[in-house]
Amino acid sequence: MMQRWRSATDDRGQASFTLILVVVVVAIAVVLLARTALLADSINEKADNIAGNAVGINEQTGAVGDLPETNRLAASILDTAEPLEEKLDEVIRLAASVDGLASSINATAGTINNTAKGINGAAASILGTARAINDGVAQINVNLDTTLALANAIKNDTGNILGQAVEANRVANCLDRGLLSASGGSGGC
Predict the structure, then answer these.
(1) Does an H or E element contain 73, and which?
(2) What pLDDT does residue 64 have?
(3) Per the domain annotation, does 85 fall within a domain?
(4) Fewer beta carbons within 10 Å, N or C terminal of the chain?
(5) What value does the mean pLDDT take over residues 76-83?
(6) Residue 79 located in a structural domain
(7) Which residue has the higher pLDDT, 88 or 150?
(8) At 29, which helix (H) or strand (E)?
């Protein structure tokens, strides 16, 4: 089975997208929490009003006339509190989503770390190979220096041999023409 490898660039793009998505989700969560805090403050104000009214009721039975206002405030508090449950559920859902995204980011970071370790291991192997090649090249240079010295010595020897061959050829020509005597004197042939 062939396995497709994704490049580090794909992983970084996915990680960037995930990070942007996390930031957006967190921003939404902050806005929802701020709205929840405002609604809670409103509830606290209304609760303070109710508490003040309740004290008045306890102190005076004549305050029973305020019961319709108290009921109105209680109904208002109930109306205000009803959407809070949905919003809190949404905040919880968003927090769970952020947690899932964070786990995904951690997994991606682990994959990137493992890839970097693999690259580091490959680089160490390449470095060893490069050093071996460098040592081989150094030995080749030493061998070439030795070969060049031998080639120069051979060249000198072939120059001497050539000079002797030219002289032998000249003497052979002189002998062929009978210009050399047995004593070797030719008068330059």
Answers:
(1) helix 67-177
(2) 62
(3) yes
(4) N
(5) 77
(6) yes
(7) 150
(8) helix 8-59
Tokens of 129: 């190979």
The string of pLDDT tens digits covering residues 107-166 is: 888 888 888 788 888 878 888 888 888 888 889 889 888 988 888 888 888 888 888 989
pLDDT of residue 6: 52
Establish if 178 belongs to a structural domain. no
Please state, in angstroms and rounded to a whole number, the distance separating the CA atoms of residues 157 and 149.
Answer: 12
Domain residues for 132?
11-136
The pTM score is 0.33
HSE at residue 62, side-chain half, CA atoms within 13 A, is 1
Structural domains of the chain, count: 1
The structure tokens listed for 29 are: 């969560």
With both helix axes pointing from N to C terminus, report the angle between 8-59 and 67-177 in degrees, rounded to the nearest 10.
170
Pairwise CA distance, residues 179 & 182, whole Å: 10
DSSP code per residue over 121-181: HHHHHHHHHHHHHHHHHHHHHHHHHHHHHHHHHHHHHHHHHHHHHHHHHHHHHHHHHT-S-
- Report the distance separating Cα 103 and Cα 17, nearest Å: 14
Inter-residue contact 22 to 102 (CB < 8 Å): yes
User: Does residue 167 form part of some domain?
Assistant: no
What the block records as the tokens of 36 is 């929840």
Return the residue matching tokens 């449950």. Answer: 85
